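Hi R.,

Here's the chain you asked about this morning:
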Amino acid sequence: MALCGACTVHLDGVPIRSCSTAVSAAVGKKITTIEGLPAKVGKALQEAWVAEEVPQCGYCQTGQMMTAAALITKNPNPSEAEIVGAMDGNVCRCGTYHRIQKAVVRAGKAVAGAKA
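And here is the predicted structure, written out as tokens:
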């Protein structure tokens, strides 16, 4: 039903909900799971998640990180409104949304620093 975002993967770099995407929509396209993120993006997100103490129950982590990865890859310096807009629809049962926002900012800075 695509209600929580926990199953988010990238299809040609765009975050999608795998639970509601037909297999036929992925034919000939690149599918990326969290394990396939570019090293600098994946590492930046992991370190930011730990630094901001985001992880709680773990239910949403993969989907949150995949959505954040797509955002900071396109825009490593997103505004609060851009973060909220991009992350909308990713449910966190523990309510760590403020920490997630801070982690996205931190990871974006790390990715931008890696590009410099």
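One quick note: Strands lie at 8-11, 14-17, 31-32.

Cheers,
M.
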